[in-house]
Amino acid sequence: MTPNPSPPPSDQAFTLVEAALCLALLGLLVVALIPLFKGQVIRTKAQTVEQLLEQARDEIINLGLMNGSCILPAPGPDATVPEGMVNRLDPWGNPLYYIVDPRVNRFPCVCSMNSTDLNATHNGHLMTDIAFIVGSRGKNRERDVLNATGEYRILNREEKVDGTSRVFDDTVQVVSLAYVAAQQKGRHVALDCRGTALCLPFLKTPHDASPYWHNGTVQGAVTTKDRFGYDEGAYFFNGTFNGVNGDKQYIDYGDDRDLNVGTGDFSLAAWVRVMDTPPDRFGAIVGRGFLSGHVGYGLFISSVPTARDHYCFTFHMRKGANLKSVDSGDQATQYPIPDRWHFVVGVADRNQPDGLRIYVDGQRMNSTVPLDATHDLVDWQAHFAVGVRYAQSNAAWRWRYFLRGKIDDVRLYKRALSAQEILTMYDNERP
Questions:
Q1: Contact between 312 and 302 (Cβ < 8 Å)
Q2: pLDDT tens across 381-394, in order?
Q3: Which of 83, 90, 123, 345 is the S-S candidate for 359 at Cβ 3.0 to 4.6 Å?
Q4: Which neighbouring-strand residues pair with 174?
Q5: pTM, 2 dp
């Protein structure tokens, strides 16, 4: 039997030239991938640091809240977090830095402060009323968080250096007075600001405890006892419902685009205590925009459509002549009950048969109003406000529908809360 002839050498192996070419291409590929790999490692570690900083933030606050002192701990050596903390070192083994306003340790309770001297900038935006900053400077510790004027810079993880985009590994948590205040209230009520676009604990300050820093301007409204009897834990509004007589009191949060909800789902929640029935048809709890021919959304107190001498909670959405509204007025129990705290939540769940919903004290009320994406609630002129509505009427911008009552723990979510979530919030937060 004759064996098969061997194939030509060129058919069974690479030539030296081909092997060299492959090695060269492989080398170029490795060189090209190394920066990408390094960048991915940095990003992965940065994500780990973000989780670590959240844990360190909560540990610092808990240290401050121990025994009801509410005095934040002093920094350790070289402005690092206090020694003995569980979450003290970053993934590179370096101590986290910790910057705290020195005044917070000269007051009986940091949560009772209206402001601090600690400010920072991020993308040119000034962040004020900061309780403390905790962060990691990354592996190389190559950038300073303090600028030439003594103000702390919150640095971007990726920025251009000499025209080249470069990834840095420093990470920071900036913690506001409002956030610390929300945690102090957490000893009495589980006020969870996670996932909010706006979170207002209203503990002696109108400031926002969400990551978006919507600091409010108080116009006449005064702090008062909250539903737990906590001094200066809510705001009282002594305005009238028609805005003609009495004091015009409200809190203004401006026209920040972060408070636009566009065509997405959203939920608006607040605790409210009405002092008496309104002399006029409407009283605004919280919302943005909305008057005739305008754009907006919000929670109201209004007269029941079928009985003008009865009042109900109402959740409105409007774009021009397209008005959607749902209320609590046809239930066996009429809401609001004067001089009693109620938890009111409006939910906009797009493209659902019952997309516009309202809940009172954890229970779902009338819910038969469908929604769609035509309600594009974007308006950069209308202000977000508490205790009043700021919107356009007859081509003029006006403050209208002033509320007489107390409001607390306002939250805006850019998603539809579920019925179970709302019931859990009510059970956790009720007095």
A1: yes
A2: 788 999 988 766 55
A3: 345
A4: 133
A5: 0.72
